[in-house]
Amino acid sequence: MEASSSSNLSRASLVTKCFFGWSKKQSFFIHQQPNKCASQMEVFVTSRTKEVPDIPVVGNEKIGVLLLNLGGPETLEDVQPFLFNLFADPDIIRLPRLFRFLQRPLAQFISVARAPKSKEGYASIGGGSPLRQITDAQAEELRKALCEKNVPAKVYVGMRYWHPFTEEAIEQIKRDNITKLVVLPLYPQFSISTSGSSLRLLEGLFREDEYLINMQHTVIPSWYQREGYIKAMANLIEKELDKFDCPQEVMIFFSAHGVPLAYVEEAGDPYKAEMEECVDLIMEELEKRQITNAYTLAYQSRVGPVEWLKPYTDETIIELGQKGVKSLLAVPISFVSEHIETLEEIDVEYKELALKSGIENWGRVPALNCEPTFITDLADAVIESLPYVGAMAVSNIEARQVNCPVMQIFK
């Protein structure tokens, strides 16, 4: 089935097969909304959330799950080298071929220049990012949930820019003799600059290793439309709304990490479309609970001179204050773990801006972290993907990677 043949792909739960491309044994299946980056890719469509089997599905196989995330500095001393790793990624700053030799020197310059300000931010949230600790906890809870569903599996954490690096996780996977691997980026919505960057790294690792070439695997690039995830988000929002004196008067303010506009308009990045649909699905779930608050979506964390997705979070907060909005509930929609962009950017910077702009009542929905409904749904997603695990030969992930001048930059 061609990717363009279904009008309902964005609402379906898609399970990927052979995420690194075609195999001599079978075709490549990828979970993605139709766009010009994926026009030649095929998709396998299942129901949004399938019933998982009650019997073991692993047999004699050794199942592994690899959780992918950004990573973050754990101490203030880690900040500058973390930033160097970030900016040394050609998917973060894309240089013309003629100037690629400047990638690492430029990364060194930028990381040194930005480190002092970044250190202040991390110092304000305890001296480092909690991302590793939270992701490790998510991995352990996912392992338990899988075990309870008769799928014993080892769950690994691979960070893109800090320890434990993806390369370290892959080496442990090899030592454990894993035979079937499910790759699960902890980004609900796909972007070429988040999940795409991590998958491109994996592509290189798999191409160079005979063991990995022959290991069966699958990937779930995005899962924002899954029922468990939507319900978990709605649960958190409903709980926080109840803390306001007049919950029905609260504006629900979804704030997502931004990407440069060129990604969407020129590269066909599905991030914006997936984000907007994700918000719609959450609000539909809230409406079923008789919650019909006004809501809006904006994008945070822009840097540099290029235009990013609009509306911007800071500008939108000011406009809402000018329009007389008095109660605002911030919902970090693209983050499943607390980190600097929730704990410092939203909780400190945007809260202060909101109060200065005339908004009197401020609230913030916590990140999902280890919320039980969320973890259970991740376990179901892993189990649903197992029948589609296949052997990899050659990667086609480059179809998602395009020549944008500047890739997404995180704080």
TrEMBL record:
The protein in question is named: Uncharacterized protein
Provide the species name.
Answer: Catharanthus roseus
